[in-house]
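Handout, section 4.2: multi-component inputs.
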Amino acid sequence: MSISKKGLLATVGVASLSLLATFVTTVAPADAAINCNKIIGPGYAQLKGKTVTMFTSILDPELSKYQKALASFTTCTGIKVKMEGSNQFEALLPVRVKGGNAPDIAIIPQPGLLAQMVATGKAVPAPAQTLKNVNKYWSPGWKGYGSVNGKFYASPNSANMKSLVWYSPKQFAKAGYTVPTTWTGMMALADKMAAAKQTAFCGGIGSGGATGWPATDWLEEVVVRQFGGQVYADWISHKIKFSDPKILAAMKTVEGWMLNSKYVGDVKAIATTTFQAAGLGIPAGSCMMLQQASFYAAQYPAGTDVSKNGDVWAFYLPGINTSVKTPVEGGGEFFAAFSKRPEVQELQNYLSTPQWAINRIATAGSGGGWLSANSGVPLSAYKNPLDQLSAKYLADKNSTFVFDASDAMPAAVGAGTEWTQLTSWFADGKSSADVAKAIDDSWPAQ
Amino acid sequence: MSTLKLANANPGRKLFSTRFATIVVWTITFLWTVPTFGLFASSFRNKQEIFLSGWWHIFTNPHLTLSNYHAVIFGSSSSTLSDGVLPYLMNSIVITIPAVIFPVVVATMAAYCLAWVKFRGSDALFFFIFALQIVPIQMSLVPLLQLFTGGAHIGSITIIPKLGIAGHFAGIWLPHTMFALPLAIYLLHNFIASLPRDLMEAAYVDGANHFKVFRQIVLPLSVPAIAAFSIFQFLWVWNDLLVALTFASGTEEVAPINVKLASLVGQWGSGWETLTAGAFVTIAIPLIVFFSLQRFFVRGLLAGSVK
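Output:
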């Protein structure tokens, strides 16, 4: 029995050692003489020794860039920010909030989840200064997605821009094409390409378990371009059904575009091509244009010249109905708070300022990839030219900004039947009426 | 007569000693090990090679590197973790050891009482504890978290005050202890109840009280069962992700290594190479525990299963 006694002793030893080690690894923020007024802006109180916890779905390496960008805030105000990233965020946040263990601030990517959190009664409306900043710097569309039942809760964090068409400036120059600025112009260009035996549009909606999502974007882009933001919002809330004549008309437009074999070649192949591979033929000219979000740039192999006159570049997907002003579709995250403590509100205020966005953009470096729809951020803050292009449309206060509808609809539809039904629209040639009916039937009862 | 013959022939041993059976067993063992070996092989390849070709190319093109292990243990600015997993590994140890000791101590004493101290309703109590095993852990997450953060009240009367331990080590030890107890008490009760009655009675006659019997007779005799259960509990707590994610926050101060491991692939799913090495760093400690306590494991595996 002496062995087990020794073992127990060793165990206790290890336990106390490891306790010691955990204390040792806790680090304090570095201090540096910096001009706080310039870096984070004026008007912040000193709240030394306070800590704000943040919970997010963002993981490393992005997460450490957030921590780096927040370091100056900690130095200037004394408020420490503890960030926790988890890929189980969407499942964990409701559990923690209902259990009374909510983080001070959660970075929520889905407006639907924000509404769910507000419904628990634990979310706290944004402080007055944050509201003021958001009114000043963001378009009403963005503010709307951070509000629930007319009350403003969450200021926007980063944004991504979906209304882009990828093309090759070199190929366009070779064939003498110009970038279209209207929808009819784009279709006329596609006709020209078809006459020249070129494939006008590339397409791929394959994405493993999420196959079909690029097709939802195509439909969303057309819905907002044809009918504007109000119809789009009613469509998300199912006041307007998929089988509504308006949505069917939008589907017809998509049929004349991405389901048109004259432009895309084999329509069925779009369902089996992965979205990553869809536009890889653009530099070589095997297909000419691809509607895809700003993050598609990452798919091109190293050495591809992504610039205005290079191998690939993107143009803004033109509008259809002139009464809808600069329709832009995108996604983003929102800072929702669950505490009214002064240090939390101070951080909320800071996160709604252009200074924060500029500091965060600076940590992204020349590769870029972090966009803000904050109109107070000068375009020159972006080091990456593609980011500049996207930011121009995102931060336009006169634009009609709409959030990715499939992210805002109930998950059973937006991440379920809409994907599968639109896939069979492409793969099996299912009629748009049947597709619309199947999606409507799957809408969860209230 | 015939039944007796069958029992004597030991059909199990005969079945497994044929050549055919040996081949089957080896084939299954091989197939079972292949994925783990693939992960192991990948952990020695660099990122480029992992993405471009399958792990079996390690045989034809052996460019072995320890860079993944270096990145996982010491951190690297280019990968999905900047500081390495050592703080998290320490957290795992700090979480696991008390979460094994607490239920073992409580369960051994409870098992002795339920088995040898006769009191009214002891059988019903044992049955009740045994039945608690059917409560799924997922169902109790939110209520338990509410208890930790808000306490329990009936009307305006506070039954349990706010414990405020969510997000701290105690907030992880306690749920693990709670969820382990029903099975621990059941296993140890059946083992302790099967100890020879004469031994206890002799001790009682000599004037020993319950505490003395427990310490000097029951405890030494139960070591195999206790060790076996400790291994079970150690592996369960070490491999747990759900309780840690719910009750600990994922920060460096308290999060165990599994929480870190789950996020190693990174924001864009590009951190595979550190995941492979991270997995083997995580496995290392349970392996040490398993092999050092293995001799108890074989003896104790049957603990309480037959009376």
